[in-house]
Design goal:
By secondary structure, the chain is an alpha/beta fold. It contains 14 helices and 15 strands. Helix content is 27%, strand content 22%. It has a 7-stranded parallel β-sheet with strand order 3-2-4-1-5-6-7, sandwiched between helices. Residues 391-405 and 411-428 have low confidence and may be disordered.
Length: 429
């Protein structure tokens, strides 16, 4: 079977400098024959003259990337492929497509193997964009009429889902700001190799032919997941970047939690750039809530059934996976009264007042008297959250692959303040 052709994916928000990086890598590729695909190419867009043995294909929006990749791979003329993704694409999703095609494609001559996922970020604008609640529609950048993503959501997905981050236009910011940006990026993606650059000038060997890509490592490499494993980067007082892991074993009062998330709480105690995790609402004993915030907008919805809500016969048969479930049923070495039901939120941001943030969340928890009243009483509490549709897999995927749920936002005066619900209008905080 022929070797799979290695492919490097360059992602990054429009204007970050992907094309500059692409041109630099090609010009200093030491004779490597590279097939180049530029996705979402605009009319008139052009690359620098290509070295001998390289070939570029411009793919306008909507053109099938995988089919063109297979065509180039099948020619046998190239040592590697290099894809400049559309500015709104997520690198891990592209890699998934390549892996699926390699597994289910027509033959080994059409197979490619992701080698390196690279995200280019603009040092002069990324921190501002991560702080705002600007929707893609506000910039006329949506990929379809149903695309309700924000700029920050796209940036976070590109930063979390890559192997290498190129912090481009580094010459436009001062040394202190650059150090703070590096710390933010490292907190969002601890495993990424971060390279500072101007005009996309980095050693080609750091972004191509690295062999760094590993699907599981990328999928599990986001900073919020690392924090849950106890692997978050240490806080640095000099740059003000820190990570807070909030864990509690009692539910939120639905009304109090809803009231909180319609305030400026994510901006009142520092600036929370990213928060993610599970939450438990009193009265909802079957389903975990999913919390997913990037910049000025957060989304909440159903994340799947709690293991404790199921018959143990439905728990994983695999010994290691079942041991993880059983561990979630314990708190401090003792059986937890409500099984794996819990609050488990990670907050990553700038100048965070951890004590104040924890106090705001703690105020939403049930009091001792409310806990003593029991679950039957909790079911009668006012609950303004929308119903969570039970659209989970029949085999109950309790890894809690958090879906986008209800929308809420924070930060931009162009939107209503507060945090709202998906299915209703987004709100800004």
């Amino acid at each position: 079977m022929a070797d799979r052709l290695p492919v490097t994916v360059l992602s990054g928000f429009p204007g970050a400098g992907k094309t500059s990086l692409l041109n630099h890598v090609l010009a200093h590729g030491a004779g490597v024959r590279v097939g180049v695909l530029v996705c979402g190419a605009q009319h008139g867009q052009a690359l620098a003259p290509l070295p001998a043995g390289c070939e570029a294909t411009m793919l306008p929006s909507g053109e099938p990337l995988l089919a063109e990749t297979a065509r180039l791979a099948a020619t046998g003329r190239f040592d590697a492929l290099l894809v400049e993704a559309d500015g709104l694409d997520e690198p891990l999703a592209i890699a998934q497509g390549f892996l699926f095609a390699a597994e289910h494609g027509a033959g080994p001559d059409a197979a490619v193997q992701p080698d390196t996922l690279v995200t280019v970020v603009d040092a002069a604008t990324v921190l501002r964009d991560l702080n705002e609640a600007e929707f893609l529609a506000d910039r006329g950048l949506v990929q379809g009429q149903d695309d309700d993503r924000t700029v920050a959501e796209v940036l976070v997905a590109q930063i979390e889902g890559c192997d290498v981050i190129v912090l481009n236009k580094a010459d436009l910011v001062g040394a202190a700001e650059l150090a703070r940006l590096r710390a933010v990026l490292q907190a969002l993606n601890p495993r990424a190799d971060i390279l500072e650059a101007s005009f996309g000038k980095v050693p080609p060997g750091r972004v191509q032919g690295t062999g760094r890509f590993d699907f599981e490592a990328v999928a599990d490499g986001a900073g919020w997941l690392a924090a849950l494993r106890g692997e978050a980067p240490a806080a640095n007082a000099a740059n003000g970047v820190s990570t807070l892991v909030y864990r509690r074993r009692r539910p939120f009062h639905p009304q109090r939690f809803a009231d909180l998330i319609h305030t400026e709480w994510l901006r009142e105690h520092g600036s929370v750039l990213r928060s993610k995790g599970l939450f438990w609402l009193a009265g909802r004993m079957e389903t975990a809530g999913d919390w997913n915030q990037s910049g000025g907008v957060c989304r909440h919805g159903g994340a799947g059934a709690w293991w404790a809500a199921l018959d143990p016969a439905e728990w994983p048969a695999d010994a290691a996976e079942r041991a993880e479930v059983e561990a979630d049923m314990h708190d401090g070495g003792a059986p937890a009264p409500f099984g794996d039901r819990r609050q488990e939120l990670v907050l990553i941001g700038l100048d965070l007042d951890h004590a104040a943030l924890q106090a705001r969340l703690d105020a939403c928890l049930l009091s001792d008297a409310e806990m003593a009243a029991g679950a039957d009483a909790w079911a009668a509490y006012p609950d303004p959250f929308p119903a969570w549709v039970d659209d989970f897999d029949d085999d109950h995927d309790h890894g809690h692959d958090h879906n986008h749920g209800d929308d809420c936002g924070c930060g931009d005066p162009g939107h209503d303040h507060g945090h709202g619900s998906h299915g209703g209008p987004p709100h800004a905080n």
